Amino acid sequence: PDILSFSSCIAQSAIRNTLDNLPRKTKERSTKSKEGEGTLSVQTLDMKPVCEFLIPGLYVENDSRMDIILDNKGMFEGSLTSELIAYNDNYLKSLNGKLFSADSTFTVLIDAAAIESGSLSMTSPSLIAKAEDNIISLNYRFDNEGREASRADLNAMVSFPNRNESAYTLLLHILPSETTIRGKDWSLNPSSIYFKDKTLQINGFGLTSGEQAMTIDGKLTDRKTDTLNFVLNDFDIGILNPFITKPLDIQGRFTGKGRAYALFGEEKGILLDLKGDNLSIYGHDAGTMNILSKWDENKEQLNILIDNKLEERSPLNIVGSWDPSTSRLDL
Questions:
Q1: Where are the alpha helices (DSSP H) in the chain?
Q2: Are 209 and 189 spatial neighbours (Cβ–Cβ below 8 Å)?
Q3: Which of the residues 43, 48, 107, 263 has an alpha carbon 20 to 30 A from that of 238?
Q4: Are the C-beta atoms of residues 221 and 198 closer than 8 Å to each other?
Q5: Can you name the residues that pair with 250 across neighbouring β-strands?
Q6: Dihedral of CA 42/48/54/56: which sign?
Q7: What is the distance between the alpha carbons of residues 182 and 195, in angstroms, rounded to a whole number?
Q8: 3-class DSSP state of 179
Q9: If we measure between CA atoms, which residue out of 99, 163, 107, 110 comes closest to residue 130?
Q10: 316 closest CA partner among 276, 259, 282
Q11: How far apart are CA 65 and CA 58, in angstroms?
Q12: Each residue of 15-61: pLDDT tens digit?
């Protein structure tokens, strides 16, 4: 049986066994339930002592609620609502989730008012996931209106093929998608990512905005003969700022290429030839930067050079090496 059918059977069995051993909560609820139908409703009160014991840093707002209904045909539906779920500095506001199941088909609908994670903020995020026959289709959206005009409409399909269908255990297909980061529109090219033990293959991944582009293509294994290549063209590294926990406000454009190999093996290495222009950090001019790395066959080490120039000065100049066999870095 496929993984979704197996998961459905396990979930239905677990839910039914739980529901059969729980008393009906109210007469009103039990009269509405049909014969052979099970219901479960959970509403939180003060969860602080429980959260501190089980998962320190987790907070669940009072009156959060979960409802599950399982009928005599094995179909179930569920809902989850909470005004606030937080973990340390990350939180989800006004969560509303729904799950529908019929045979081996699952549909998940999730939306919220906002997600905050470090410096990453997303307003009105929503996720739609539909799963059938080992294939999950995904659509994720958010729209930060008035907050540096950031939004996204991302589409993907994930599958978990049987062994006789593919040598890979996970297949991810990125479908045509668009995102706006800090007021600039970006497009995600249709591409595919395949994974199995010690093997990662990326075919045609591309993120573009006008002349700016980042492309990734190739294969990573435990062998030096397999390589993953990437190319940057006038790429604005400022789009990384929302993913950095500290407000460094890094700006600048990088052009160049790189190659990685054997990252799942012992002789791993990353070769780089990148140049950054008009760099700044936290509003301070950082000039230009060259980043080079090259493999030394004789010493079996990766030589590294980072050269930074600001007007007539060289405020940063790093020369070093990395030995992958010992993971030793000398600078």
A1: 3-20, 27-32, 48-54
A2: no
A3: 263
A4: yes
A5: 281
A6: positive
A7: 32
A8: strand
A9: 107
A10: 276
A11: 16
A12: 455 445 544 443 344 445 555 568 889 998 888 888 999 999 999 99
